[in-house]
Amino acid sequence: MGVLLDRALWVSSAVWVSPAVPLGSGGGLAAAAALERLEPAPPVLRVGMVDGAPPCSYRDAGDWRGLAIDLWSRIATRERLPYVVSAWPSVQAMLEASRNGDLDVAVGCINVSPERLERYRFSLPFQEDGLAVMVLQSRLDLGRSFLLALFTPTLLQLLGGYLAAIALLALLTWRVEHYDQNPDTLSQGRRRSFSALFQVLATGPGSNTLVATSRGQGIVLLAYLVRIVSASLLVGYLTVNVARQVQGGPSARIRSEADLRGLRVGVRGGTVSEALLQELNAGSSAPKVTIVPLAGIQSGMPLLVSGRLDALLGDNLQLRYLLIHAPLQGARPTLALQGIRPESQAFVFSPGLPEATAERIDRAISALKRNGVVGALRQEATTPAVSPSP
Question: Considering the entire predicted model, what is its pTM?
Answer without folding.
Answer: 0.64
